[in-house]
Amino acid sequence: MTIPADHAQRLVLNDEVHARPYAQVEAPERISFLALLAADGGAGATAALVRLFERMGRPPPLDAPHVAADFGTFRLKWERHTEFTSYTFFQRGGFDAPFAASAFDAVPADWLATLPGETVVAAQVAVAKAPEQLPAVWEIAHSFADNPIVGSAVASGAASVFTDFRVHADRMSRFLVLDRGLGRYQAGRVVQRLLEIETYRMMALLALPVARRAGGEITVAERDLLALTERMAGTGAEDEPQLLNELTRLAAAVESSGSASKYRFGAARAYYELTRNRIRELHEESLPGLQTIGEFMERRLAPAMNTCESVARRQDELSGRIARSSDLLRTRVDIEREQQNLQVLAQMNRRAKLQLRLQETVEGLSVAAITYYAVGLVSYVVKAAKSLGLHVDHDLAVGVSIPVVAVLVALGVRHIRKTVMRAT
Fold first, then answer.
1. Distance of CA 25 to the CA centre of its chain
2. What mean pLDDT do residues 400-405 have?
3. Fewer Cβ atoms within 10 Å of its own Cβ: the N or the C terminal residue of the chain?
4. What does DSSP say about strands 29-37 and 84-92: parallel, antiparallel, or unpaired?
5. Which residues of 67-97 are buried (b: 16+ CB within 10 A; e: fewer)?
């Protein structure tokens, strides 16, 4: 059957649901896990993985986000995530004390010590066959340096898991899985969920120091904003530009702090939700005298996440309050400027009226001056006529011409002013 050509990403997208498959785990087995923050986008981790394969005499893996390999003495599962890279080492074989040794012992020590990145999680998981009778809590606690432990039955009672969520003297946290009938893939799913719970809770908690630091900065900014707001209520127009400048600097500082922490808080929310999802997937059932992992996380992790959420909300609310204060102050400045503009316009109107009156005065003087010169011309004309023998009374002619000339000049000036006004 011939069908249209595949989308360029069809196979990649189809295989995405098969990415990062669960490892097969069979009791007794030790699992050692590392999660390292990647400082270079994971390029160094990829190079380190290639070195391990070359050292073990195996062809280097392709550039892929996850790699699984069996080196005989141990198995490796490597994954590259957005912010961290994880290494999971598996080693089968019986043991008496679950945490007396680890799968790290089978890994080249010099290679392990030079892995790039900072350790966020180092954990050991010991998977052992469960005895007929579940040991007492105090007996299990011996494997955790007698610390208080949490635990539950998981996978519909097919296994029991225990941990104390502490970093021990060997710099690793510990998980004990007592297998009552897990299949290999089922055991792999349980182990992976436990490791993901440990990893995602630590990645979520990376936001807590950021929240504590940002909380202090927000407190200082809130105090500064309160002081500025009080000054706004009692200052005059001459101080408003300075207040607006200080508000602008405060807004820039708050936005800078918020931008630096926004990604971390968003990532914390995502990691926290992943942690809760992995806990739900365990399908825990309570064991006598023990908190379940879910109960422990709700009691211990949830408050830290609530702190981060609270700080994120305070940042948003503070930004909004600063914006409202800035808008209020700008409104006051704008109103003050409008009042000043109105005063300037009123002064311009007064000046225009004065100029108009002055212009009218000048026009009156102009009419008188033009009339004077025009009557002088009339006087010369009358004298010339008299010299020609015409009997014209000079004084009478000049006197009669004065009002006539004045009226004509006034009408002419008025016509010129109207013409100019129409043109403008």
1. 41
2. 78
3. N
4. antiparallel
5. beeebeebbbbbbbeeebbbbbbbbeeeeee
pTM above 0.70, yes or no: yes
Sheet with strand 66-70: strands edge to edge: 66-70, 75-80, 84-92, 29-37, 118-129, 173-179, 159-163, 150-154, 285-286
Q: Count H helices, E strands: the chain?
A: 9, 9
Structural tokens at position 210: 């950021």
- In the DSSP assignment, the letter for residue 335 is H
Give the C-alpha separation, 137 to 265, whole Å. Answer: 37
Answer yes or no: are the C-beta atoms of 266 and 316 closer than 8 Å: no
Q: Angle, nearest 10°, between helix axes 240-282 and 293-387?
A: 150
d(CA 332, CA 235): 11
Task: Please give the share of the chain, as a percent, with pLDDT higher than 90.
Answer: 49
Amino acid at 132: E
Range with lowest mean pLDDT among 134-143, 247-256, 272-281, 362-371: 362-371
Distance CA 121, CA 79 (A): 14
The pLDDT value given to residue 355: 77
Q: Structure tokens of 329? A: 């102050």
- Is 41 exposed, middle or buried, given 0-12, 13-18 or 19+ CB atoms closer than 10 A? exposed
Q: How far apart are CA 22 and CA 28, in angstroms?
A: 17
C-alpha span between 308 and 16 (Å, rounded): 32
Contact 166, 143 (CB under 8 A): no
Helix (H, G, I), strand (E, B) or coil at 161: strand
Structure tokens at 98: 């679950």
Orientation of helix 293-387 relative to helix 184-205, angle to 10°? 40
**Under 8 Å between Cβ of 151 and 140:** yes
What is the DSSP code string of 203-230? Answer: HHHTHHHHHHHHHHHHHHHHHHHHHHHH
Please tell me the distance from the alpha carbon of residue 342 to that of residue 252, in angstroms, as a whole number.
34
Q: Return the structure tokens found at 152.
A: 């539950």
CA–CA distance, 299 with 293 (Å, rounded to integer): 10
Tell me: pLDDT of 47 over 80: yes
